[in-house]
Write a structure and sequence with these properties.
Elements: E1 4-7, H1 17-30, H2 39-45, H3 51-62, H4 72-92, H5 102-111, E2 115-119, H6 124-135, E3 145-147, H7 160-169, E4 176-180, H8 183-191, E5 196-198, E6 214-215, H9 224-245
Parallel strand pairs: 1-2, 1-4, 2-3, 4-5, 5-6
Helix pairs in contact: 1-4, 3-4, 4-6
Length: 246
């Protein structure tokens, strides 16, 4: 059996992306910025991993503000900090729930002594707020390894965040399963060699997931043992073919 499950957070553990969008818009308003990210715009912006990077990309593309700011990087950090404070308060107020099947999957993993990890581009306060909302004070102890936000210099789709999670777990990729909701996330996990289950979110249901081991609406419909066995069989077949060709 596989030894660890590595979860993405936004869109995977919970449908939080629209809460992020609303928090961005509230932060823009507080800072006196005449920006509004509607759902179609945010769907496109989510192709950029990381909140600070998303703001930077938006300004680079549309340049509505950069020429007026002397310390642009500082401006982005401050704006993102405000957005994070708004977001975590929204989560604390109960605006997010775990996606269907996630709680049951985590409970079974704990019962089976399967190790749990997180590999995400969201920030540590966002993760803490979601786990506190979902599990109360016990939330912080559920995941053995948490790799987030600025843990690595290159965000998804680079494999760095998953490679770090594997290093911290001290496990090879083939002993783990990743759960993602986006193409960037899938490219990151599969780039690290981890078999990946994809459960598309409301913002990623139009994306392609060719590299996924399984694509499903909910994790409850996935036979994780079968996924693991299939990927092991495929790896064994590939190794046998390589030996024959050598």
């Amino acid at each position: 059996m596989f030894k660890a499950i590595i979860f993405d957070v936004d869109g995977t553990l919970s449908e939080t992306e629209d809460i992020h969008r609303k928090a961005f818009n509230q932060a823009f308003e507080l800072k006196g910025l005449l920006w509004t990210w509607d759902r179609p715009a945010y769907r496109l912006l989510l192709r950029i991993s990381g909140g600070k990077e998303r703001i930077h990309h938006f300004v680079e593309q549309y340049d509505p503000y950069r020429s007026q700011v002397e310390d642009f990087d500082g401006f982005i950090r401050d704006l993102h900090k405000t957005k994070t404070e708004i977001y975590t308060q929204m989560i604390a107020n109960g605006e997010a729930a775990l996606r269907p099947g996630i709680r049951q999957l985590i409970t079974k993993a704990i019962e089976d002594c399967t190790r749990l990890a997180i590999a995400t581009t969201t920030s540590a306060p966002n993760i803490a707020a979601l786990l506190q909302s979902a599990y109360g004070s016990d939330g912080s102890g559920i995941f053995e390894v948490v790799c987030c936000g600025d843990s690595v210099p290159r965000k998804k789709p680079a494999p760095d965040i998953y490679l770090l999670a594997l290093e911290m777990l001290d496990l090879p990729a083939e002993d783990c399963i990743a759960i993602e909701d986006s193409r960037n996330g899938l490219l990151s996990s599969s780039g690290a060699g981890i078999p990946t289950v994809v459960t598309p979110s409301i913002y990623t249901d139009d994306q392609r997931f060719d590299e996924a081991a399984v694509v499903a609406d909910e994790v409850s419909s996935v036979d994780f043992a079968a996924v693991f066995a299939d990927t092991r069989n495929e790896t064994a077949a590939e190794m046998a073919l390589q030996r024959r060709m050598a």
